């Protein structure tokens, strides 16, 4: 007589899969902490406000006709771009049978812009630098531009996400620098907006990964090349911004008139470029390494 032993098969979730799932939560927490730090330094301290305001005033913008064109362009970008991107995300999600990405895209747009507007409406700005002005922190224009770019990266096929991310980073940089040049926003307003969008985007990716668990896939070569370009840009811009902020801070206190207003403006631009590059590195990395279609994906959905 042959004895047949019954075995109980236990399916274990790979540790790599668990880490892959919770990584967006950790990134969201870091982005929130960064947002708080930016506000504390550049809004809550006199020296931080002075450095930030000098960057704002250093653009020497005095071209009424250009200002009118810039105003119309940026306002149209803020509303029209968001509407077009939301429609595109919904349609593309249906076509690709990835409704989870369409829902995540809508969450990013709504949550990031809502948080930005609520913070701007309810946070005060103490006059610590002798330049009284209403609170402009964080930037609504930068938030709108970043959410539009993030959504496009999210809903397009993963092989294209790096390339789209690089183009999106350029677009967000132009919009963000333009708002500072036009003296609408300080650099810290823009950097905070980017961190808010990254936090909301990370939460959206966490929701997608809860539904689509599995180990991350290797990132395609074009996406890796894009991250190298963004990484080099971030390193150079961050080093320039740190050096520039030190010089501007010295100019504000112990060594008056050490640097010019234009130098302060360019320092703010370097900080914006660094923040944009870091944000898009994180975003492309999050979205380009999602699990394969066979990893606990409902039948009928595509990768």
From TrEMBL:
What Pfam families does this protein's entry cite? PAP2
Q: Which organism is it from?
A: Actinoplanes sandaracinus
Instruction: Report the InterPro entries cross-referenced here.
Output: PAP2/HPO, PAP2/HPO_sf
| Keywords, sorted A to Z | Membrane, Transmembrane, Transmembrane helix
Report domain Phosphatidic acid phosphatase type 2/haloperoxidase positions: 77-205
Q: Which residues cross the membrane?
A: 21-42, 76-94, 101-119, 139-157, 164-184, 190-208, 228-251, 263-286
SMART domains from the UniProt entry: acidPPc
Q: Name the chain's protein.
A: Phosphatase PAP2 family protein
Question: Which positions carry the signal peptide feature in this UniProt record?
Answer: none
